[in-house]
Each structure stands twice: as structure tokens, then as C-alpha cells.
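Q: My collaborator sent me two sequences in one message, no labels, and asked for predicted structures for both. Can we handle them in order? The first one she listed is below.
A: Yes, handling them in the order given. First sequence, followed by its C-alpha cells:
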Amino acid sequence: MPARTTDDDLPLVHQAQAGDFAAFEELVARYEKRVFGLALRILNRRHDAEEVVQQTFLTLIERITDFRKESRFSTWLTRIATNHALALRRREAVRQTATLGEDRHDDNGGELPRPQFIAEWKVTPEQLVQQRETRELLDRALAELDEKYRMVFVLRDIEELTTEETAETLGISISNTKVRLMRARLMLRERLTQFFGDEHSRIEPGHRHG
């Protein structure tokens, strides 16, 4: 699970804002892995993710005095990292992807993807998240998603931003964010069910238990 902002963050932020570089270094140590993980999930390339980490904390040095506690420090830092990752992706054109802009099909509802593999899970999602092999499978499944769905899932379900914060960070509507998140969850659940679903409880699409 991602590190959550605690009351310990604010004293460090205040010290860093006053010029205490040791406090800044403590903030970097606290969030470096989280920023790297976020960037890696967005860009899928380690050296790009490492560049985002550097850019993020350079920006933090420059803008630490701009933080006004209107949101959690972790949320504020996540937005900075996300913006750098998206800028790098656009600038270097890491790969061809769909635009992050508004999608009329999303806003108009559209059809949700129909899973081809439906089954009860042998263990709970909470238990799966705690397993290293599960996190690796999740990262691989995320990499297969269209960017607009992956981005919403990463920010909302992994980084734990609110729906409103996710929409603001990506520059899309709240309704669009909700639809994309639902689609991402459905697509990811189908992929992971192929690994963790119980074959004895499998349901063929279009069929019901008798």
C-alpha cells in the first residue's frame, strides 16, 4: 500500500520551508519510492521513471514554499510527479497512446467491457495485494491497459487520490474519471481472475448457474 501522509509530514514541510535541508532530505527519503513507483507505472521505463523522480524533487525544492496545506502533502507531491511524467511522455513520445483528453464515448456512457472469464476468487483482493507476485502481475496487467484507463486507476486506486483530485490532475471531468475507473477495474479484474479465479466456480459469459 502507498505511504499515507501523516502528522509527521507537516513539521518536516515547515522545517524545509524554513531552509532546513535535512528536513527536505527526510521528505525525499519518505516519498522517493512512492514517486518512482508512480512514474514507472505511467511510463513503463525505469530510466524515465528515475528522471521523473529527479525532476519531482527538484521542483519540490523550488516550490516547497508554495505548499499551503490545502491538500495532503502526499497528494500535492503526487500531482507534481504526475505532471512531470505526463510531460516526459508527451515530449519523448515513449509510445503511441490514446489522448488523455475528454472521450465522448466515456462521457456518453458507452458499453462496459464484457468479461470473458468470470469466477469467484480463491482469496480476497486484500490478501492478493500483500503478495509480491500479485503486485508484479498487477503491474504487468496495468501495462497492457490503454493509458487513459491506467492513469485513472493508478491515481485513484493505487495512489489513493480522491475522484475529484484525480479528475483535476488529469484535466478531465469527474464523470469521465468515474467511467474510466470502472472500465479499468473491470479489465484488470478479468486479467487477474485468469490467475486467481477458481476454475470450479467459472461462469461462461451469457450463462447462469442452474
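Q: And the one she listed second?
A: Here it is, processed independently of the first:
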Amino acid sequence: MKTLFSLILLFASFFAGAQTPDPVKWQFWAEKESDGQTYTLYAKASITPGWHVFSLNPGGDGLLIPTGLTIENREQYRDVGALTVEGKEVRKEMEGMGMVSYYEYEAVFKLSLIPYKPGTASGFVSFQVCNDRMCLPPAEVPFSVKL
């Protein structure tokens, strides 16, 4: 009986640990702009086909999680611009939800920063990834980028 119970626990722990790979991979970097004081922070989402992340204004029924970027050390910046996105935004009517906006395959989120002095920008990107059948729980991915 003890052996059977141990085998059940072993298999249960194996299957509990086997999760679907994360359908979104993030890359972060910063580039200094030509004015010599502004940096652009980039957060690139590479999204597995069949999945999507929501836009900054996802629409829908009000329950969708927009993708956002949070700077944790904002006091180190004279100015932080508005978050913008490069990528093909998909707008789709979804039954029971209305018009929904999201990105598939790839999206690059950009934020302009003017630091008081060079340093490190740190924070996190928050998002929710979904496919046509389900959504994974909202997630946060931390970043730290040298300016």
C-alpha cells in the first residue's frame, strides 16, 4: 500500500510540474535618442501562433487585461512618456464581448524616458495571453535595463 501511494504521489508531482510552455517571450532593451538625453525603452513580445496579448485599450466587456509597462523607480526620471505600440493590432468582434483589440505574433511596446542621470530602468510588463479557447492567468515579467 505504501509503495502504491508513493507511486501515485510521484506521478502526480510529475504531471503537476509539466506545464504548457509560456506562449509569450519578452525581450527588453533601451536606446539613446539623437537629442542626447531621451532613452526609449523597448519591450518586445514574441507570441506563439494561436495566442495573443491584449492591446493598451482592449475593449470588450471591461474584464480584459490590457498590456502595460510599469517603471518602478519613476523618481529617477524627469519625464516618462506615454506607452505606445508597434505591431499589427487585430480588432475583432467577439460574441458576448463586443469589439476586442489584441496583438498576435509580435508587438513592440515603447516608452520614452528622460533620466536625471544614467542608470538602470527597472519595472515589469503586465499582460494576459489568450487563445480562442482560454486565457492564462494575468502575468508580470520583471525587467532591468541599463540606460
